[in-house]
Write the structure tokens for this entry.
Amino acid sequence: MATRVLLVDDHLVVLRGLKFFLNTQENIEIVGEAENGEEALKIVEDLQPDVVLMDLMMPVMDGVEATRKLKEEYPEVKVVVLTSFSDQDHVIPALQAGAIGYQLKDVEPDLLVDTIRKTAEGEKYLHPKATDLLLSEMTGAQKTTTPLYTLTKREKEVLEQITLGKSNKEISSHLFITEKTVKTHVSNVLSKLDVHDRTQAAILAMKNQWFEKA
């Protein structure tokens, strides 16, 4: 069966070019066109596309908002973003809205066809720049939610010494700070890691292999 595709772009030249090219491809059928997100939402139910090829910057309703509403109402429809933008402010919101594919308008024609076919089958297919930004976003989110990253450099050093079984006096000697300062850092570490004692802190650090990864 042919993959049914709805084209959404506010530039008529782009729409006509995409329609002409994609209609020459085997097992791809262009079932309709829309010039903005709002128009696309109105015709999706009647056209029942498998894939919506969505521009991002459009009047009335942009591609991100249209993607979000489309996935809420028609979760089975796959959205592939086709845009000129590859920065974080466009890539991340589009993927968060539910786009399963992301390609730039300078994509090789054959790769665009491959993207449409793969996403129709449920596979995520992203331009390398989009993939890099997504990985960076995931890494950043992990850092902000992992307790280790809430610690200062000195607190990390103290925690590492705790995992080695060092006493406050030994930590003081190793880091060339007073025992009173060590006690303050230990207290801060326990509070930030939300544990009751240094043993729990050490177990948490070793379980997550924090210092082996550093």
Remarks:
- The chain has a mean pLDDT of 90.
